[in-house]
């Protein structure tokens, strides 16, 4: 008997070089800086490109590598350019060379700043973004830039600047914005009669993914934003792949599929909020005193519902400096008939012994901690020392595999992930100027170790550590699918 044929050897995985590409935009006219590569560089000689460089093993972050390349190649120091945002990574394969490109957009702070070239480039030009495609350029330069530019960034700005709404509410807004972007692309194509152009559907999906990336990255601490956007894009991706010819789906159909899955995610979020509220109601008892800090929309609604149903409750509320959203929560509970005591955050340990339980929300749940407004950890420590139960209420959309940018390139530290608004938020209450030589810190969020919690309550009930870990891993894979990460 002849021997069975051996399976062919598995192809060796392609090793791709990690590269940062930095576009610098001039605010006055919106033009971007491109450089003409010299004969002394190793690749793409005499081709136009953006400032770029390979990621080195000792680099602390991708942004740090960008700033170093900008200084070396065009002479702009760190104070001359401002990071705007990152873009969705992309793969560049030209048949010989293989790269993972990490795009970044910077804004030039000084309009008359002079470019100073080093040996890597021989010429520069400030070109309109649309003109990049006309250049004799390195592979996919125009596509790289397109991942950074937004035709309408009002939704991203709103999400980035909002300090009044919780993570769940902002997730709903982000999903609505994604659906509106799909609708805008469909209407724009219909107006220009380009809906049937070959590849228009695939291009629209790429544009929606790029927009989704910016939605997902603009508030890293508000995990439900990224999770809900990723859920919509992953579902739309799977739906479109199931079509007879996934690569030829018309633009209108692509945009319609995204809108359908956005609507489904909005329904899921609303259902999860109602289910979580019922779970929280199960923790409350007539005559109970609860203590909280910050403003969780779920905790707020559950207590109001309990009070409306005749339950007599007392609440101790930390004001939650610096914006004092605890005051807003206290006012709404008092109006609903709850007996409310409002305290400064520093008094938490003094009052926690009067409570029957501590109940807070969370903006993110990792495998190790619940992330919530600064002050939550101290409250949990005080409750733990006093033997008081501590519960965190959060729906499963807050389970976090980490910032999206960290998943796109593991092992790199991410800059500007902590939310630290202006010091004036803190000093405004002082009634006097900031003393000379004093630096104010204003970090918004902190982790509360799961070991300090009596329970994590979700819309599915209490979630144990093993289930949290499994859900986090599943979410990470969803990120990779939705944004087609290398």
UniProtKB/TrEMBL annotation:
Keyword tags: Initiation factor, Protein biosynthesis
Top-level lineage group: Eukaryota
GO process annotations (BP): L-methionine salvage from methylthioadenosine
Keyword Protein biosynthesis: yes
Pfam families for the chain: IF-2B, NUDIX
Protein name (record): Initiation factor 2B related
Family: Belongs to the eIF-2B alpha/beta/delta subunits family.
Domain Nudix hydrolase, residue spans: 15-149
Organism: Chlorella sorokiniana (Freshwater green alga)
Single GO term (MF): translation initiation factor activity
Keyword Protein biosynthesis: yes
């Amino acid at each position: 008997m002849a021997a069975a044929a051996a399976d062919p050897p598995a192809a060796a995985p392609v090793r791709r070089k990690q590269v940062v590409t930095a576009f610098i935009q001039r605010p006055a006219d919106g033009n971007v800086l491109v450089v003409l590569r010299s004969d002394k560089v190793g690749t793409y000689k005499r081709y136009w490109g953006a400032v770029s460089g390979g990621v080195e093993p000792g680099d602390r972050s991708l942004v740090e590598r960008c700033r170093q390349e900008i200084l070396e190649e065009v002479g702009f120091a760190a104070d001359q350019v401002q990071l705007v945002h990152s873009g969705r990574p992309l793969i560049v394969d030209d048949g010989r060379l293989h790269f993972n490109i990490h795009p970044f957009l910077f804004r030039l702070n000084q309009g008359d700043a002079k470019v100073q070239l080093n040996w890597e480039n021989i010429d520069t030009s400030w070109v309109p973004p649309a003109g990049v495609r006309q250049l004799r350029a390195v592979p996919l330069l125009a596509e790289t830039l397109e991942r950074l530019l937004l035709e309408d960034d009002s939704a991203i700005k709103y999400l980035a600047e909002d300090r009044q709404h919780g993570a769940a509410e902002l997730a709903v807004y982000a999903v609505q914005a994604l659906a509106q972007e799909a609708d805008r692309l469909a209407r724009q194509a219909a107006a220009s009669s380009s809906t049937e152009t070959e590849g228009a559907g695939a291009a629209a999906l790429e544009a929606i993914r790029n927009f989704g990336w910016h939605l997902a990255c603009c508030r890293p601490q508000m995990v439900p934003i990224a999770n809900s956007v990723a859920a919509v894009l992953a579902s739309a991706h799977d739906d479109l792949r199931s079509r007879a010819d996934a690569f030829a789906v018309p633009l209108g159909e692509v945009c319609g599929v995204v809108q359908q899955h956005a609507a489904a995610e909005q329904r899921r979020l609303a259902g999860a909020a109602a289910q979580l509220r019922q779970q929280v109601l199960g923790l409350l008892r007539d005559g109970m005193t609860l203590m909280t800090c910050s403003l969780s929309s779920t905790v707020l609604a559950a207590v109001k519902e309990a009070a409306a149903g005749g339950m007599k409750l007392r609440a101790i509320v930390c004001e939650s400096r610096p914006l004092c959203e605890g005051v807003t929560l206290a006012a709404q509970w008092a109006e609903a008939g709850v007996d409310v005591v409002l305290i400064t955050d520093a008094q938490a340990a003094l009052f926690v012994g009067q409570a029957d339980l501590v109940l807070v929300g969370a903006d993110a749940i990792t495998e190790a901690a619940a992330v919530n407004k600064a002050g939550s950890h101290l409250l949990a420590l005080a409750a733990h020392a006093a033997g008081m139960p501590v519960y965190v209420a959060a729906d499963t959309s807050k389970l976090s595999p980490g910032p999206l940018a960290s998943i796109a390139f593991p092992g790199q530290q991410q800059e500007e992930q902590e939310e630290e608004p202006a010091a004036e938020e803190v000093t405004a209450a002082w009634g006097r100027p900031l003393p000379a030589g004093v630096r104010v810190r204003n970090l918004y969020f902190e982790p509360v170790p799961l070991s300090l919690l009596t329970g994590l309550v979700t819309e599915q009930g209490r979630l144990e550590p093993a289930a949290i870990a499994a859900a986090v891993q599943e979410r990470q894979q969803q990120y990779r699918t939705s944004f087609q990460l290398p």
